[in-house]
Amino acid sequence: MGGDRGDGADPAGTPSRTPRTGRPRAASGARRGSTGSTREDILDAAAELFTTLGFTRTSTRALGEAAGVRQATLYYHFAGKDELLAELLDATVRPSLDLAERLVAAAEALASPAVRLHALARFDADLLGRSRWNVGALYLLPEARAEQHAGFWARRERLVSAYRTLARAAAPERAGAALDDPVAAAVPMAVVESVIQQRSLAGEGTPLALADACLRAVGVAPEDVAALEPASAAVLAALAPGR
Protein backbone atom coordinates (compact mmCIF):
# COMPACT_ATOMS: atom_id res chain seq x y z
CA MET A 1 0.00 0.00 0.00
CA GLY A 2 1.37 3.40 -0.74
CA GLY A 3 0.64 6.97 -1.63
CA ASP A 4 2.01 9.23 -4.33
CA ARG A 5 3.70 7.69 -7.35
CA GLY A 6 7.11 9.08 -8.16
CA ASP A 7 8.82 12.10 -6.69
CA GLY A 8 7.92 15.77 -6.68
CA ALA A 9 4.78 17.74 -5.92
CA ASP A 10 1.29 16.63 -6.79
CA PRO A 11 -0.60 19.42 -8.58
CA ALA A 12 -3.67 18.82 -6.42
CA GLY A 13 -2.03 18.11 -3.10
CA THR A 14 1.05 18.21 -0.97
CA PRO A 15 4.59 17.36 -2.12
CA SER A 16 5.47 13.70 -1.87
CA ARG A 17 8.27 12.65 0.45
CA THR A 18 11.18 10.66 -0.88
CA PRO A 19 11.35 7.30 0.95
CA ARG A 20 14.52 6.82 2.97
CA THR A 21 16.26 3.83 4.42
CA GLY A 22 14.94 3.30 7.91
CA ARG A 23 16.80 3.17 11.17
CA PRO A 24 17.08 -0.14 13.05
CA ARG A 25 13.82 -1.64 14.21
CA ALA A 26 12.80 -1.81 17.83
CA ALA A 27 13.87 -4.85 19.80
CA SER A 28 10.32 -6.20 19.61
CA GLY A 29 11.03 -7.31 16.03
CA ALA A 30 9.29 -7.03 12.70
CA ARG A 31 5.56 -6.54 12.27
CA ARG A 32 3.48 -9.66 11.76
CA GLY A 33 3.01 -10.03 8.02
CA SER A 34 5.90 -7.66 7.38
CA THR A 35 6.63 -6.71 3.78
CA GLY A 36 10.30 -6.24 4.62
CA SER A 37 9.93 -2.47 4.09
CA THR A 38 9.91 -0.35 7.24
CA ARG A 39 7.90 2.37 5.51
CA GLU A 40 5.25 -0.06 4.26
CA ASP A 41 5.04 -1.75 7.66
CA ILE A 42 4.35 1.63 9.30
CA LEU A 43 1.62 2.34 6.74
CA ASP A 44 0.12 -1.10 7.33
CA ALA A 45 0.11 -0.54 11.09
CA ALA A 46 -1.53 2.86 10.59
CA ALA A 47 -4.19 1.31 8.35
CA GLU A 48 -4.95 -1.29 11.00
CA LEU A 49 -5.15 1.10 13.94
CA PHE A 50 -6.94 3.95 12.14
CA THR A 51 -9.63 1.54 10.91
CA THR A 52 -10.05 -0.30 14.20
CA LEU A 53 -9.30 2.23 16.96
CA GLY A 54 -9.87 5.46 15.05
CA PHE A 55 -7.48 8.26 14.19
CA THR A 56 -7.76 10.24 17.43
CA ARG A 57 -7.35 7.24 19.73
CA THR A 58 -4.23 6.02 17.91
CA SER A 59 -1.00 7.37 19.39
CA THR A 60 2.35 7.44 17.63
CA ARG A 61 3.64 5.16 20.39
CA ALA A 62 0.96 2.60 19.52
CA LEU A 63 1.82 2.95 15.83
CA GLY A 64 5.48 2.30 16.53
CA GLU A 65 4.70 -0.75 18.64
CA ALA A 66 2.30 -2.15 16.01
CA ALA A 67 4.87 -1.62 13.26
CA GLY A 68 7.72 -3.03 15.34
CA VAL A 69 9.76 0.18 15.19
CA ARG A 70 10.88 2.93 17.53
CA GLN A 71 8.99 6.22 17.46
CA ALA A 72 12.17 7.86 16.14
CA THR A 73 12.04 5.52 13.15
CA LEU A 74 8.39 6.38 12.54
CA TYR A 75 9.21 10.10 12.50
CA TYR A 76 12.18 9.42 10.22
CA HIS A 77 9.74 8.23 7.54
CA PHE A 78 6.64 10.33 8.29
CA ALA A 79 6.03 13.75 9.80
CA GLY A 80 3.23 12.31 11.93
CA LYS A 81 -0.25 10.82 11.89
CA ASP A 82 -1.63 13.35 9.41
CA GLU A 83 0.91 12.38 6.77
CA LEU A 84 0.15 8.71 7.34
CA LEU A 85 -3.56 9.36 6.90
CA ALA A 86 -2.87 11.37 3.73
CA GLU A 87 -0.92 8.50 2.17
CA LEU A 88 -3.57 5.94 3.10
CA LEU A 89 -6.35 8.10 1.68
CA ASP A 90 -4.43 8.60 -1.54
CA ALA A 91 -3.92 4.86 -1.91
CA THR A 92 -7.71 4.40 -2.09
CA VAL A 93 -8.21 6.77 -5.00
CA ARG A 94 -5.04 7.40 -7.01
CA PRO A 95 -4.77 4.04 -8.87
CA SER A 96 -8.45 4.17 -9.88
CA LEU A 97 -8.15 7.80 -10.93
CA ASP A 98 -5.13 7.03 -13.11
CA LEU A 99 -7.10 4.29 -14.87
CA ALA A 100 -10.32 6.33 -15.04
CA GLU A 101 -8.70 9.25 -16.83
CA ARG A 102 -7.13 6.90 -19.36
CA LEU A 103 -10.50 5.24 -19.94
CA VAL A 104 -12.30 8.56 -20.39
CA ALA A 105 -9.66 9.69 -22.89
CA ALA A 106 -9.76 6.39 -24.80
CA ALA A 107 -11.57 6.21 -28.12
CA GLU A 108 -14.31 3.80 -29.16
CA ALA A 109 -11.57 1.83 -30.90
CA LEU A 110 -10.44 0.60 -27.48
CA ALA A 111 -13.89 -0.28 -26.17
CA SER A 112 -17.43 1.04 -25.87
CA PRO A 113 -18.27 3.41 -22.98
CA ALA A 114 -20.18 0.58 -21.27
CA VAL A 115 -17.13 -1.69 -21.39
CA ARG A 116 -14.89 1.09 -20.10
CA LEU A 117 -17.28 1.89 -17.24
CA HIS A 118 -17.44 -1.80 -16.35
CA ALA A 119 -13.63 -2.04 -16.37
CA LEU A 120 -13.29 0.99 -14.11
CA ALA A 121 -15.90 -0.27 -11.66
CA ARG A 122 -14.31 -3.73 -11.58
CA PHE A 123 -10.84 -2.30 -10.93
CA ASP A 124 -12.05 0.18 -8.31
CA ALA A 125 -14.09 -2.41 -6.39
CA ASP A 126 -11.11 -4.76 -6.40
CA LEU A 127 -8.81 -2.00 -5.11
CA LEU A 128 -11.15 -1.14 -2.23
CA GLY A 129 -12.02 -4.73 -1.40
CA ARG A 130 -8.67 -6.49 -1.53
CA SER A 131 -6.71 -4.31 0.91
CA ARG A 132 -5.72 -5.99 4.16
CA TRP A 133 -7.58 -3.33 6.18
CA ASN A 134 -10.74 -1.46 5.24
CA VAL A 135 -8.88 1.70 4.26
CA GLY A 136 -11.73 2.78 2.00
CA ALA A 137 -13.64 3.73 5.15
CA LEU A 138 -11.01 6.29 6.17
CA TYR A 139 -12.58 9.06 4.10
CA LEU A 140 -15.52 8.93 6.55
CA LEU A 141 -13.26 10.05 9.41
CA PRO A 142 -13.86 13.66 10.52
CA GLU A 143 -10.08 14.16 10.43
CA ALA A 144 -10.08 13.41 6.70
CA ARG A 145 -11.89 16.74 6.17
CA ALA A 146 -8.92 18.73 7.45
CA GLU A 147 -7.31 21.23 5.09
CA GLN A 148 -4.16 19.14 4.62
CA HIS A 149 -6.26 16.46 2.91
CA ALA A 150 -7.71 18.81 0.28
CA GLY A 151 -5.59 17.09 -2.37
CA PHE A 152 -7.29 13.78 -1.69
CA TRP A 153 -10.75 15.32 -2.04
CA ALA A 154 -9.75 17.03 -5.29
CA ARG A 155 -8.55 13.72 -6.72
CA ARG A 156 -11.68 11.94 -5.50
CA GLU A 157 -13.86 14.55 -7.22
CA ARG A 158 -11.95 13.91 -10.46
CA LEU A 159 -12.75 10.21 -10.06
CA VAL A 160 -16.43 11.04 -9.47
CA SER A 161 -16.39 13.13 -12.65
CA ALA A 162 -14.86 10.27 -14.65
CA TYR A 163 -17.57 7.88 -13.44
CA ARG A 164 -20.24 10.38 -14.44
CA THR A 165 -18.74 10.90 -17.89
CA LEU A 166 -18.55 7.18 -18.62
CA ALA A 167 -22.00 6.54 -17.10
CA ARG A 168 -23.67 9.14 -19.32
CA ALA A 169 -21.93 7.73 -22.39
CA ALA A 170 -22.75 4.13 -21.46
CA ALA A 171 -26.42 4.64 -20.66
CA PRO A 172 -28.99 3.68 -23.30
CA GLU A 173 -30.71 6.70 -24.84
CA ARG A 174 -33.86 6.16 -22.80
CA ALA A 175 -31.87 6.35 -19.55
CA GLY A 176 -29.29 8.96 -20.50
CA ALA A 177 -31.47 11.96 -19.64
CA ALA A 178 -31.93 10.72 -16.07
CA LEU A 179 -28.15 10.82 -15.59
CA ASP A 180 -28.17 14.58 -16.09
CA ASP A 181 -29.32 14.67 -12.48
CA PRO A 182 -26.15 14.83 -10.30
CA VAL A 183 -27.57 12.43 -7.73
CA ALA A 184 -28.47 9.82 -10.35
CA ALA A 185 -25.09 10.23 -12.04
CA ALA A 186 -23.35 9.50 -8.74
CA VAL A 187 -25.06 6.11 -8.34
CA PRO A 188 -22.50 4.01 -10.30
CA MET A 189 -19.61 5.06 -8.04
CA ALA A 190 -21.81 4.65 -4.97
CA VAL A 191 -22.55 1.08 -6.05
CA VAL A 192 -18.82 0.36 -6.27
CA GLU A 193 -18.06 1.98 -2.92
CA SER A 194 -20.67 -0.21 -1.25
CA VAL A 195 -17.86 -2.78 -1.02
CA ILE A 196 -16.54 -0.69 1.89
CA GLN A 197 -19.66 -1.50 3.94
CA GLN A 198 -19.82 -5.11 2.70
CA ARG A 199 -16.28 -6.20 3.51
CA SER A 200 -17.44 -9.12 5.63
CA LEU A 201 -19.56 -10.42 2.74
CA ALA A 202 -17.09 -9.69 -0.05
CA GLY A 203 -15.51 -12.55 -1.94
CA GLU A 204 -13.44 -13.14 -5.04
CA GLY A 205 -16.40 -12.47 -7.31
CA THR A 206 -17.49 -9.24 -5.62
CA PRO A 207 -15.68 -6.79 -7.96
CA LEU A 208 -17.29 -8.39 -11.01
CA ALA A 209 -20.72 -8.45 -9.35
CA LEU A 210 -20.47 -4.77 -8.43
CA ALA A 211 -19.27 -3.83 -11.92
CA ASP A 212 -22.30 -5.64 -13.35
CA ALA A 213 -24.58 -3.81 -10.89
CA CYS A 214 -22.96 -0.52 -11.87
CA LEU A 215 -24.00 -0.99 -15.50
CA ARG A 216 -27.49 -2.14 -14.60
CA ALA A 217 -27.81 1.04 -12.52
CA VAL A 218 -27.35 3.16 -15.65
CA GLY A 219 -29.91 1.17 -17.63
CA VAL A 220 -27.83 -1.45 -19.46
CA ALA A 221 -29.86 -4.64 -19.91
CA PRO A 222 -28.69 -7.63 -17.81
CA GLU A 223 -28.06 -9.80 -20.89
CA ASP A 224 -25.90 -7.04 -22.40
CA VAL A 225 -23.93 -6.70 -19.16
CA ALA A 226 -23.02 -10.39 -19.17
CA ALA A 227 -21.98 -10.21 -22.82
CA LEU A 228 -19.45 -7.43 -22.28
CA GLU A 229 -17.63 -8.96 -19.28
CA PRO A 230 -14.88 -10.55 -21.45
CA ALA A 231 -14.22 -7.23 -23.19
CA SER A 232 -13.96 -5.51 -19.81
CA ALA A 233 -11.40 -8.10 -18.68
CA ALA A 234 -9.41 -7.51 -21.88
CA VAL A 235 -9.34 -3.75 -21.28
CA LEU A 236 -8.00 -4.29 -17.77
CA ALA A 237 -5.40 -6.73 -19.04
CA ALA A 238 -4.21 -4.05 -21.48
CA LEU A 239 -4.34 -0.98 -19.22
CA ALA A 240 -3.80 -2.44 -15.74
CA PRO A 241 -1.86 -5.68 -16.25
CA GLY A 242 -0.37 -5.70 -12.76
CA ARG A 243 -3.63 -5.41 -10.84
TrEMBL record:
Residues 59-78 bind DNA. Gene3D superfamilies: Tetracycline Repressor, domain 2 (1.10.357.10). Keywords: DNA-binding, Transcription, Transcription regulation. It comes from the Bacteria. Pfam families: TetR_N. Residues 36-96 form the HTH tetR-type domain. Residues 9-37 have a biased composition (Low complexity). One of its GO terms (molecular function) is DNA-binding transcription factor activity. The keyword Transcription applies. InterPro entries: Homeodomain-like_sf, HTH-type_TetR-like_transc_reg, HTH_TetR. Residues 1-38 are annotated as: Disordered. This is AcrR family transcriptional regulator.
